[in-house]
Every structure is written in structure tokens, then in C-alpha cells.
Amino acid sequence: MADPRHILIVEDEQPIANMLHDIFLERGYVLTHAHDGAEALEQVKSNPPDLILLDIMMPKMDGRELLDALKGTDYESIPVIILTNNDQMEVIAEMLGKGAHDYIVKADMTPHSIVRAVEQRLESLADEE
Predict the structure, then answer these.
(1) How far apart are CA 34 and CA 57, in angstroms?
(2) pLDDT: is 129 or 78 the higher one?
(3) Are 61 and 37 contacting, i.e. CB atoms less than 8 angstroms apart?
(4) Global pTM?
(5) Which helix or strand (DSSP H or E) is residue 42 part of?
(6) pLDDT score at 1
């Protein structure tokens, strides 16, 4: 990876945030972390990431609200992968309809599946550039 890609991890559960941080740091990514959507929105505006890993249920501003806040801005094209415990089909459809690019249920995730989803999305971005 010539220029390391920047991933913003938006996760209020510290053990999960730490695990994600370790996985991607080990692979050479530049990482930032936000504990809620409001903090993430500020980080996106000050240092736009190449990709956002986003939880849905968080304090202050949840994942739904963050996706809504990104719509119609210069940042709405940033790929978003949802990481959540909610596996209800209507929530999955809602989040994908709001602009999320992928949806991973935490209970079903493995470090490998998360890395694969992120790298596939970043590769498709590189192909578009």
C-alpha cells in the first residue's frame, strides 16, 4: 500500500473499537476513532477518511443520524460499512437505503470478514480513481 488508507472507526464499545484498531493498524492503515456520531461528524469534516466503519446504536448521534448528516455534503461519497448487533432485515434495508455500502452483524463477524469487506470496498474505490 503506497499511501496508507485512512479508516474512521465509529464505535462506542471500547473492546470492539480496540479489536478493530489492532486489526487494521497491523495491516498498515491510518486509523481514527470516534465514540459517537457527533464526534465522527467532526472528524470527517476535519480529516475525511477513505472509509467509515460505523456502529448504529451509540449515544449523542447514532449511525442513522450520521448517515443522514453526511447526505448532500462533500462527504456523502465516503464508503460506510455498518457494524452492528442488529440483524433485522428492515434495519439492514434502511441503512443500505441511507447510503451504507455494506452491513456486518457483529455476532457473525470475524476479524477476517471485516478486513475482507474493508479491503474489497477500498479496492473498488481504487478501481474508480
Answers:
(1) 13
(2) 78
(3) yes
(4) 0.91
(5) helix 37-46
(6) 44
Query: What span, in angstroms and rounded, lies between the C-alpha atoms of 87 and 70?
Result: 23
Grid coordinates 486489526 are at which residue? 23
3-class SS letters over 59-108: CCCCHHHHHHHHCCCCCCCCCEEEEECCCCHHHHHHHHHCCCCEEEEHHH
Among 25-29, 51-55, 107-111, where is mean pLDDT lowest? Answer: 107-111
- Amino acid 72 reads G
Domain total in the chain = 1
CATH number at residue 13: 3.40.50.2300
Under 8 Å between Cβ of 18 and 49: no
Q: In which domain, by residue range, is 112 found?
A: 6-45+52-59+76-128
Single-letter amino acid code for the residue at 64: R
Q: Is 63 helix (H, G, I), strand (E, B) or coil?
A: helix
Please give the Cα distance from 10 to 7 (Å, whole number): 10
